[in-house]
Amino acid sequence: MNIKTRRYLAIFVTCAATLGLYGAAAWRVEQLRNLPRDYASCNFERCIPHNATLNALR
User: Fold this and answer.
1) Is the pTM of this model over 0.90?
2) Angle, alpha carbons 12-16-30 (nearest 5°)
3) End-to-end distance of the chain based on CA atoms, in angstroms?
4) Alpha helix locations (H) across the chain?
5) 5-51 tens-digit pLDDT
6) 45 vs 6, 9, 11, 48, 49, CA distance in Å?
7) Is 38 within 8 Å of 47 (Cβ atoms)?
């Protein structure tokens, strides 16, 4: 492979990885958003899931 092909391949892989991460994050947010109300406490300023996966990332 020449340098031009490698450059295009690197750009493609970077874009694919970025889109994959974005898609996974969007899917996870949709999964959390569609949880039944029993799994979240909305007594505070914002709803906190009981499994605390989002809070663990902070």
Assistant:
1) no
2) 160
3) 42
4) 3-33, 53-56
5) 999 999 999 999 999 999 999 998 888 777 765 555 565 556 655 55
6) 50, 46, 42, 9, 13
7) no
